[in-house]
Design a protein that fits this description.
Layout lengths: L1 H45 L5 H36 L6 H50 L2 H16 L15 E3 L6 H10 L13 E3 L6
Antiparallel strand pairs: 1-2
Length: 217
């Protein structure tokens, strides 16, 4: 009786050891598949060209579009300002200097905004690509199928590699100059009076210089 019990115990032990060995083998095979899949995903993303040059190209394309339009509008507004000041007889006044400085300040403000947005868009693109790589990892761990995960990663990479910034016409970036506004600055009024002594200090007012519009920079 004891012999049978001992034999049974030995068989049970052998069975458990066999199961443990099979489980260990399966886990080793599973880890090998995961490592294979992860290596394939990493290789795909590392060789896709998502380096600093890629992100710089994306940023520069967006900035070039915005700054070309900014410069065009700046030149147009500067020309209009010169004509308006000339018609008011203020071409060589302190008003003209103030208008020129204000326009340049608007341009600088817009330029900072464009650069900030370009940096944000590049950061979003970079984050999106990193998210796609993580999604490929997640699919690999869920399916344990390196082929499926690599195929999914390849599709995501192809889409991201073709990414281009949205280039579109910008609205009016500068406030138009208006001569004759009643909201004149005192320094402009004084300068105009100095340039036109015949006006004196009577009830007539000099044409004022101001900016109007809802699209203030």
């Amino acid at each position: 009786m004891g012999g049978k019990s001992g034999s049974s115990n030995n068989q049970m032990l052998m069975f458990e050891m066999q199961q443990a060995a099979e489980a260990k083998q399966k886990e080793a095979e599973r880890q090998a598949r995961l490592e294979q899949g992860k290596g394939a995903i990493d290789q795909l993303f590392n060789s896709a060209g998502f380096d600093q040059a890629f992100y710089d190209k994306y940023k520069n394309a967006e900035l070039s579009n915005a700054e070309d339009q900014l410069q065009t509008q700046f030149d147009k507004q500067a020309t209009q300002n010169r004509y308006s000041l000339a018609r008011a007889g203020l071409s060589r006044s302190s008003a003209a200097n103030q208008v020129k400085a204000d326009l340049s300040s608007q341009k600088d403000f817009q330029d900072i905004g464009f650069r900030t947005k370009a940096d944000q868009d590049v950061a979003a693109l970079r984050s999106g690509i990193q998210g796609q790589q993580q999604a490929a990892y997640n699919q690999l761990f869920a399916t344990e199928d390196p082929g499926v995960a690599a195929e999914s990663a390849a599709g995501a990479i192809k889409s991201s590699a073709a990414a281009q910034p949205t280039l579109q016409p910008l609205g009016e970036l500068f406030k138009p100059l208006v001569i004759g506004s009643i909201s004149a600055g005192q320094n402009l009024l004084d300068q105009y009076t100095a340039n036109n002594p015949s006006i004196g200090s009577g009830s007539r007012r000099a044409p004022a210089v101001s900016y109007t519009g809802d699209n203030a920079a």
